[in-house]
Predict the 3D structure of the following.
Amino acid sequence: MYDQIHASKEPNVPANKLNDTTEEPQEVKEHLQDVAVGNIMERIKMAEKKEKQSNGADRARCKWKSETNEKLDEKKEAAMLEPGNQLIPAPLSHIPLKSLLDIETKLVYIDEEEISFEFAEAAVPAGHRSAHRGCATAATSTPSVPRVDKQLRVALQDASARYRQKNYAVAAAQFATALELCSKGAATGKPFDSSPEDISSIASFIETKLVTCYLKLGKPDLALNHSHRSIFLNPAYFRNHLRQAAVFRCLERYSEAARSAMIADYMYWLTGGTEQHISKLIKLYWQAMIEEAITREESFSVMYTPFVTKVKVDKTDKMKETFAKKHPDYVEHIYTDPHGLHILPQTTEWSSPPPQQYLLTLGFRNKHIGKILEKLSSRKLPIFSDRKAPFSPITKEEARRHWETVGKKIVPVMDFIRSTKLTDNFCACSYVIEKLHYASILGRLQRVTEQSQVINQAMAELASIPYLQDISQQDAELLQSLMADAMDTLEGRRSDKERVWNKIEKIGIIEDFLYQVEDSYLKNKRLRAARREKTKMKRLQNTQQH
């Protein structure tokens, strides 16, 4: 079991508000975002085309599903749940801060003077994982490097020189100027012949430089949106995800840092990374973030149990009993995430799929929060709201109440669950929908800066989805709709049409109502049947007595 170790801790520090003066002009963001959206849509179309051309055998080899182990016997399944099994991770061992800083020095703050280093073939479509990796490996060995505009190159060289002189404030200002030049068409030497991938990759390179500048200045709050946009513009480059992880670490958002590190490690393998020491460093960072998230958390505790086949109800009950013995302070509500597919850095090796999978059992101090989380986990699409009237506009008081529950108590748990869950087998966009629901609550409360950050984070996740898993036509359409609505919300564009995630919320509320009516009907039916049977037995007894 991967047990929680509680230690003395300081309260989490919320992200500071972003300073609007550090943001690039609105037209810069709009132009680059339009380019990036075009890139992502093109990747999805290419992925769909490739999927139609491939056969069923290829699909079976590319997907990591627990069904591949269905033929294992019951004895092996039981053995996986026994204490002392070698697949069960050892208790948490503290990873020193110095080790994390060393990893960041080697992988995050590396001074990449040439943009070619950023080109891990960002334009490779998602499609099948094996085909994707093969294309990415070939592209990495002979990258297609765009010719950077002369004026932009000079600006980048000047900014890089300031960075190497450790004059980070001036460097940040010059990189911001370079980003503005890029948005005005000065990205490549031949703007009319440039591909959208070239422009977005160059812009992503500049965004990452702004991330490192602000981190060096000790201002991770200013680096956050730049880290999201660097991923949105070039999701295939692993360092972009690792830089985002570093920003989250500095903001003490450890669960989100863990997820970013997990994706970074996967992207490194997917795009042809072969140096084992780099992957080991990323996994160590991922492990450290999980450790920190668990250690600092007081409202819930966790336990990971390895499994090879579909676990039956009696095995789930056994896991709950084991959890209760190990974590007696967290037994108000205990449940096991029913969807599995959790992975841990200690036992994950992307080159030999499928990786070892774990069931995650969570225990809570607060019974109400635990029940909400279990209910969310059982849904195909996440719906946070407890609204009873789906067609009435949400009031500010309702939004404030939702934020108190969702923002402070639910979202942190959901973020932790996602820190060891690369993909979702229900809906590829589940994590994004969670974030966009939360952004809507923040918007209703007029917490504009926080709303903007959450939407940027959701868009970075959307851009990454085609690389993380094969997506169906339905998922692709949902992804496009979410991307379009998120972009409109971020840019303040109003529409007569309702946002996609709000429509999903309404459908979820209506479904809940129908399920409640059905449950109530079936319950009353059973009660009526029991009463009739009881009455019948009484009549029979009376008849026999007379």
